[in-house]
Amino acid sequence: MRPLLLGIESSCDETAAAIVRGGRDILSSVVHSQAAMHALYGGVIPELAGRSHLQKILPVIDEALDQAGVRPADIDAVAVTTKPGLIGSLLVGVSAAKGWAWVHGKPLVPVHHIEAHIWAATMEHEEGASAELWPCIALVVSGGHSSIYRCDSPTAFVELARTRDDAAGEAFDKVAHLLGLPYPGGPSVSRLAEEGNPRAYDFPRYRAKDGGLGFSFSGLKTAVLYKVRGESQGGPLPPPEAIPDRADLAASFEQAVCDVLVEQTLVAARREGLRTVLIAGGVACNRRLREELRRKAERVGVRVLMPSPAYCTDNAVMVAGHGAVLLAEGRTAGLGLDAL
Ligand code: KG4
Ligand code: ZN
Question: Is 10 in the pocket of ligand 1 (CB under 6 A)?
Fold first, then answer.
């Protein structure tokens, strides 16, 4: 059976719904981004996020059904992100999913946001359908997470490494702020970095003292801060036009992040004896990261699977897709389902 799933995602600042058949065939994907609203404040305001989800969730679900040309009766199950995320945001999606499932008499499938991001990396590739893909390594880099997992199957993951402080996306967002660039920081830093020299500044690359796996981005962020401030270390940040070599700073910062992400991921693959790497999460949109990982992985005979950029950032395709895998394992939930 290739079940038809409605997926719902509202864990942070995207309200999304999608229709996917058999975990892989994308019939529709609707994403309402709140980025413009949060940009006014330089970051996500949880209260505003929850309210916006509430306004958008039902129209977004209806649009996903319309675009796919399916009726509620055609749907086999409703998958929804239940964790992790902002609680006020998650609750909107979970409540909508429960209501929809109850009204239409469909089973509910709770989905873990990070596991869904990982599944997204397999969806658009023929090899992604093969059972031989597993076990593999996954690098998840988003606004809230920077971790490396050993994935023994699409539903069995062991975390091998995580960040000690900021997530990679968070570091991009904070450095964007230092450079006077708009939120979300990843795309704006990355755009400016295209014009800069990635070797202009030798920013620190974190390595754990015990030789273990792990990330840390706070030292890197502080190093950028010192360069931005120059001689005057106190007081407010200088205006963008007063920051010399802004593009070089952006490019050198981006290079430092990419270097540690790529190196640690390939070390994890080598230590685990695995030859496939998946990358996912918003930062996986980053062009330099995609190119460098591909290039360096190829050199050591490691295959890399990644989602197209639209399915790296938060979306519901990954939720509907992974939901089908969970449904096949009978992992449904009742109306007592809660957000975490
Ligand atoms: O996966 P995602 O949409 O939401 C979370 O689950 O956090 O990731 C959002 C993060 C933000 O921090 C954003 O700045 C970052 O992904 N991001 C990027 C790029 N596009 C988005 N970071 C670096 N380069 C990009 N092109
Ligand atoms: Zn995410």
Answer: no
